[in-house]
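Quick start: read one record
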Amino acid sequence: MPVAAASLAAAVAGALLVSTADAATALPTPTRQPAKTAPTLAELKARVAGAAAGDDTAGRTTGKKASLSAATTGTAGTAGTTSTTGATGTTAASRIDPKIIGGTTTTISTAPWMAQLWYYDDKGTSAETDDTGFFCGGAVISPTKILTAAHCVDGYDWYANGAVVTGTSILATGDDLHGGTVSGVWRQWDNPSYKASTIDNDIAVLTLPNPVTAKPIAMTASGDTTSYKAGTKATVYGWGRTSSTSEDISETLKKATLPIQSDSTCSGAWGSYFVKGHMVCAGDPASGSDSGTTATCNGDSGGPLIVGNRIVGVVSWGVEDCVEAGTYSVFSKVTSYAGVTYPRVDDTDISGDGKADLWLRKDSNDIGYSMDSKGTSFATRQSWGSWKGVNSVLQTDLNRDGYQDLVYRRSSDGDVFWTHYVPASGSWATKKIFDDWKTRTRIVTPGDVTGDALPDLLSVDKSGVLWIYPGKGTGSFSSRVKVGSGWNTYNSLRGHGDFTGDGRADLIARSKSGSYIYLYKGTGKAGSGAFAKRVKVRTWSGYNAFDAPGDVTGDGKADFLARTPGGTLYLYKGTGKATSEIFATPVKIGTGYQQYDIFG
């Protein structure tokens, strides 16, 4: 069998995968942080130590709000100062910042997803005044993804200067991680709508170069209203200040229970500072002193507010020293950002740049190829060796480790296999996941259909019944759940990601009769209610092959590919609309694609 000539961005490592399809296939090494620039463990620890000795505040602004992160000089920290007019009309310096006052100590076993975010930018001069060092909190939402606040990320180079510590409830001191694991940062994303002057749209995601073992926690879904009902008990976690009279942040993880407040209560307390729909406030009104106050404070920025084991808020802002009478802690309202954030979590691709790539097989010699997305075009194809003996290959990431997997079906007996990269060994592994699917007419890997933050798999049997196989995040599945019948009326069923902008995986189907294109909008549920009533969005009679690899352009919206019988491939950029305007005007990718018989 031929060996792949190169990886997408580096030479092939040469690891040989002997598949259960009785074929040896040489697979490229997935691209990640280049070895020559990846920070060493010593460098990462140095970043932590430098940040711990810092005296800066992330997201410092001259606007009416200041950020909620913490400076960390010694075990303390000095909040950055900025002139502002407070919500009650009193002029003060740096009135707005975050911490947990009135909380209790907790353990990492009760909050295994908590993450410490350390940032240190040493300018390399003899003076320390030009260095930047600060601390924020965050939460592991998948093995390579950290949810945090945009004011902790926007304007900072986390790849060059950041370190993330997971797996410990003790705040890192110097280079002592207290049993935790330190990681660098591969990519960063902050909400493009984030406004530093008002700390609005304050949500971000950091992508780690390798998966961590910390157990993830899911974000709440779009449209969640139950979690935000006034009086609902929520829990906030963090290492922030524990007293309004001391700058010290907590050496151990704290938690506190805060009741969700209504929008009217929040607006009454904060006036125009509070943006309904973008923010949620929680807690009882502060008493004016530590006694009788439970609130977030400096150092808690980016940490999670949790209801029902889902993140409903991200610590964003509050009042200086955190206890001013009548005030509340303010959080980014996660349900409002599920749509824009979800693609950053389920953004896996082959080359690691956050844009979905194309996988296909040439019919004349059964060689598999990948093409790296350049946004509205694809780079030169790269060989993945022989894929003879299979009749379906699908791109996915069943374990959400950030490395794209392939699910394929063997032609001879219909057995289905999962091929995935193992970073620890630098090699590929293959596991049989289903027996005898020879008569299945469709197999789809759309991502998380059931709303549990774990990717699922779908299939249509010979009777036209659509089944969901809920993923466990390990390449194994729970018992299948029936969605409904009649799905063999379609000659194409595709989906990977969110086409409608609500943070839920959807499906695109084309009817055999009339070539109508239907959108099945995901609901985040299993069974017959997994998809909303279909919506006819297009009529496509001029194509004979389709693919839905995910977000090809990198704009956070799932895209679609369509090929003509003559071999011309078109990119239909997603718009996020659940109407006939679901796709923008097609972009011609190129010709010659009739030579491929499998699209991943």
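Helices lie at 41-52, 158-161, 263-270, 338-345.
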